[in-house]
Amino acid sequence: MIKENTNIEVIISLGQKIVKVPKVVGMEEAKAKEALSKEDLEVVVVEEFDKKVEAGIVIKQDVEEGKETPAGSTVTITVSKGIEEVSVPNVVGKPQADAVKELTDNGFTITATLTEQDTTKEDGTILKQSLDAGSTVEKGANITITVNQIQQLVNGTATINLKSVLNYSSNGSGNDTNQIGTGNPKNVKVKLVVNDDTIYSENHKENETNVRASFSGVGTVTVKLYVDDILKSTKQVNLSKEQTVTFE
Fold first, then answer.
1. Which residues touch 63 (CB under 8 Å, ≥6 apart)?
2. 18-80: CATH topology
3. I need a labelling partner for 163 at 20 to 30 A (CA). Which of 107, 144, 211, 238 fits?
């Protein structure tokens, strides 16, 4: 029991301390922590890559500046890690599908796929890459790869009507000034040259109408017909698919 006339000290609570959250976006991480701690605020730091803001700078705060909050509250700040960089893998010599997967898995953007032919390498493998293997670049960087594409040989057939080509006539008629002869047919040497390669050289009667020879090549080839080593005709043949060229 308290005696009469005893002095009693009464402490009245002012309630929970309220503070204003300062702006820390744009500050260096250490200074941001210091500014928040001065206001009796707890700080949690998370990091993320940012292409525009250099590493170590605060890019976000989860409690906006000027907001009143109880002292001891937690403010989460996001600090830039700068540009995310990756090492360029070496995909030369790898199959195209494997190379594309590796590059895309590492965040590269394949902007072009070129083709070249190297018969010493496997078809479909990577011959070149535009970024040096082992170099460090920004994640998402563009890269061009060159794939080995060995063109397949396509077959062609040449049919030769010697009788027509030589304007042969058994009765001596004919208007070709290059006519080899009339009367009894004689043997002539028929030669076919595809580009620079002789692919056929055989003797035939000059009145034969269906001399056939097979050849192969890639793309457009030049086929030349010689009779007794005299050039009689030249033709261009597109071997995008099997073709027959006729000399008559």
1. 21, 69, 73, 75, 76
2. Trypsin Inhibitor V; Chain A (3.30.10)
3. 238
Inter-residue contact 180 to 206 (CB < 8 Å): yes
Reference 115, options 150, 153, 152; nearest CA is 150
Q: Are 138 and 180 in contact (CB under 8 A)?
A: no
What is the model's pLDDT at position 52? 94
Q: Whole-model pTM?
A: 0.56
Domain 154-247 maps to which CATH number in 2.30.29, 2.60.40, 2.30.30, 3.30.505?
Answer: 2.60.40
Residue 225 CA to residue 232 CA, distance in Å, equals: 6
Give me the residue spans of the domains in the chain.
18-80, 85-148, 154-247
For domain 85-148, the question of CATH label 3.30.10.20 is answered with yes
Q: Is 85-148 the same fold as 18-80?
A: yes
pLDDT in tens, 129-181: 999 999 999 999 999 999 999 888 899 999 999 999 999 987 644 444 444 44
Task: Answer yes or no: is pLDDT of 45 > 60.
Answer: yes
